[in-house]
Amino acid sequence: DSGVTQTPKHLITATGQRVTLRCSPRSGDLSVYWYQQSLDQGLQFLIQYYNGEERAKGNILERFSAQQFPDLHSELNLSSLELGDSALYFCASRGAMNTEAFFGQGTRLTVV
Amino acid sequence: EDQVTQSPEALRLQEGESSSLNCSYTVSGLRGLFWYRQDPGKGPEFLFTLYSAGEEKEKERLKATLTKKESFLHITAPKPEDSATYLCAVQLRNTDKLIFGTGTRLQVFP
């Protein structure tokens, strides 16, 4: 168990809908990263937050947004969903900058 | 553009047959390189962190090494339970960004 909790584990929704994925980082970790992993693809970096503020941005679509709350949990919002958004979404948390990131077990999103 | 490339994409080994996985990187400045193991449908599991050229880390049958342009993950006498996708990631200097390679899918047969 990495200590990073993601909910829900599975999500099935229709095209055009909006969903929210939740991530609770390891106790004390200030950084949260979000990644998308499509079938047989690598981990695509979406966005990173540090102590409530956006720190780095990757190839995140305008239909996607995220935030980190004062209790450090983070949410990734995906809207106007398309079939191609079906993927595993992972969050990872990290303490200090020079330490490893620990991943949650992911949310499997299926858009039908 | 910052890039991480892993090779081979897939590797099939007989149990006990040692081999190496490669991670080459072209980045503006490297702060650290990380190796992870990922089982199907699961989150990546941390293995090693390397910070400077010449550094080596070992854990059971795995050893990771780092040069100025690439890292190797050496697998000695692998077992079927070592079957997984192995990912490397780099952290850029002056940023917290972690960029992952596409991974090497390793299958070890008894």
Model description:
The complex is a heterodimer of chains A (112) and B (110). Chain A has 112 residues and is mainly β. Chain A is 0% helix and 51% strand. Chain A contains no helices and eleven strands. Chain A has strands at residues 5-7, 10-13, 19-24, 31-37, 44-50, 53-57, 64-68, 74-78, 87-94, 102-103, 107-111. In chain A, the strands form two sheets. In chain A, strands 2, 4, 5, 6, 9, 10 and 11 form a seven-stranded mixed beta sheet that branches. In chain A, 38% of the residues are buried. The model of chain A has no long low-confidence stretch (mean pLDDT 94). Chain B has 110 residues and is mainly beta. Chain B is built from no helices and eleven strands. In chain B, strands 2, 4, 5, 9, 10 and 11 form a six-stranded mixed beta sheet that branches. Chain B has a five-stranded antiparallel beta sheet with strand order 1-3-8-7-6, with no helix packed on it. Chain B is globular and about 45 Å long. The model of chain B has no long low-confidence stretch (mean pLDDT 94). The chains are: A mainly beta (112), B mainly beta (110). At the A-B interface, strand 4, strand 5, strand 9 and strand 10 of A face strand 4, strand 5, strand 9 and strand 10 of B.
